[in-house]
Amino acid sequence: MARILIVDDEERMRHLLSIMLSRRGYHVDQAGDGMEALEMIRATPFDMIITDIKMPRMDGIELLKKIMKMEIPYPVIFITAFATVESAVEAMRQGAADYIIKPFEEARILLTVERTLGLSRIMAENRDLKREIRKTAGGEDIVYASEKMTTVMDLAAMVAGTDAAVMISGESGTGKELLSRYIHNASPRCKERFVPVNCAAISPNLVESELFGHEKGSFTGAVQKSLGKFEYADKGTLFLDELGDLSLEAQARLLRALQEKKIQRVGGNEEIPVDIRFICATNQSLSENVKKGRFREDLFFRINVFPIQLPPLRERVDDVILLARHFVRRLEGGLDKTQFSNGALRVLKEHTWPGNVRELANAIERAMILARGTGKITSEILSFLKTSQPLRAGHAGFRLPPEGISLEEIEKDIVRQALETCRDNQTAAARFLGLTRAKFRVLLNQAKKNG
After folding, report:
1. Residue 269: pLDDT band by 50, 70, 90 thresholds?
2. CA angle, residues 97, 103, 104, in degrees to nearest 5
3. What kind of fold does domain 147-309 have according to CATH?
4. Kind and range of the H or E element at 151?
5. 62 partner at 20 to 30 Å CA-CA among 130, 172, 253, 400?
6. How far is CA 193 from CA 86, 167, 228, in A?
7. In CATH terms, is domain 407-450 a member of 1.10.10?
């Protein structure tokens, strides 16, 4: 049965409408104003919204504008008094489905709801069609509503149809490989292989063999000829993750392969042509590494043709609840049984997510296990996310003890705690302490040296 959200600051009016609609079998939820309604809409799918126009904090017109900016908006019916019919008519021009004038009859309400639900079904079909299109393009797991992620996906869609090299940068856990798969699946090479390589996970002695392959007997243990990732990805897409961890020697060979579109296996002389789409990703600042001599400038310019910066989850708060719901549905096999309490939603939105989307996915899986049998995730269940609050600016609560302190020990402890909080993500730890990454690395190196 359809799910309807009633938005009105008058409890009596909400209660009356709820009784009318519930008697007809509709599932009804209530919100006291536009702000509360918007939170609920972002967390739970509705078939339609019935809202008053005049409300505190956020009125009905503003709520309508927010809803109309969503990817697939929900149909909205306005409740209005005779004195504000002009406002309702104006709302219709802005996208409202219908309006009802107070005082109203139950028959009129039910007729309007039934007619509007027909529009809702069309919108739902449109939503399902878009999901199928995304699934075909490989983007079924890219869930977003925020402006920053919308910009990212627009850029990805633009570059997907070309063969340009793409550089995806962002913190660990932001979904760099997921975005690269989306680009591949939306490209003309989608029927060919997508080959991911984690450069940081390969032994430095084996990088060239992994990328370019090797001939039999070329080194100890090479008992037979082996194809490298370049040959394996021929005609498809090669995704090199954590590219900044490659040695300068490996970078030189990679540059040559990209320029000449040919490779040589380790221990071999034959030049083998390869045709690949190249996408790379890093959580480092490669431009800074170039300045420090850790990354080849010519390779940087070769791979940085089309840069895409993935925002951290704390900069796309509008996506947190959508992602949380998505992970719940995925864990429940496509169902949507488990609900979030308002307190749980608050905890999710206020957490800084140093581990980004990966951390959120793990947190939801843990919460689902803890909530098993209850059907609800509460703030208490998510208590493992709550961390101590950082000191406020200008905080003067700390006093030096009379016997003095060891600044080195305090710095070591701060660095250790920051890394533990941010799960060894140095970029996030630096931001957590209000430092640049370079300054944090200085402290980290000092701590190791003194450790």
Report:
1. confident
2. 55
3. Rossmann fold (3.40.50)
4. helix 147-160
5. 130
6. 58, 19, 14
7. yes
